[in-house]
Amino acid sequence: MSGKRWSQHVTQTSDALDLEEGVFALEDPREIARSLKKSADRSRRRKSEPFRSAMSMLTFYINRAGKQISAEQRTRLEQAKDELRALYGRPRANPRGDN
């Protein structure tokens, strides 16, 4: 495996989640979140709770995609994080620390 493609290999062969094909290319952030939730909830191989596994995979993809994705797609994926939090009943992160 070439060093350039290791992140693609991880995404495709992750021991944590079996992702639906094309999940990160979906147009609707809610659909991305639903797909990740479905994969995480069904997985019996994940090492942490479903929410953490789904969020980790989404964050991993965003970080590894880097400059290869458009600003529009990055925004959509960041919105999917909020949708994922909502699906699991988790509060949105507050970066400023105020309520």
SSE inventory with pairings:
Elements: H1 6-13, H2 29-42, H3 50-65, H4 71-87
Helix pairs in contact: 2-3, 2-4, 3-4
Distance between the termini: 47 Å
Rough outline: globular
By DSSP, the count of extended strands is: 0
How many alpha or pi helices?
4
- Name the structural class: mainly alpha
* Main sheet attributes: strand count, strand direction, barrel closure: none
SSE order, one letter for each helix or strand: HHHH
Number of domains: 1
Multimerization state: single chain
- Using the CA coordinates, give the radius of gyration: 14 Å
Helical percentage = 55-70%
Question: Which regions are unreliable across 5 or more consecutive residues at pLDDT < 50?
Answer: none
Strand content: under 5%
Mean pLDDT: 83
Description:
There is one protein chain. The protein has helices at 6-13, 29-42, 50-65, 71-87. With 99 residues, it is mainly α. It has one domain (16-87). The protein starts with 5 loop residues before the first helix and ends in a 12-residue tail after the last helix.
Please tag this protein with its features.
single chain; 56% helix
In brief:
The protein has helices at 6-13, 29-42, 50-65, 71-87. With 99 residues, it is mainly α.
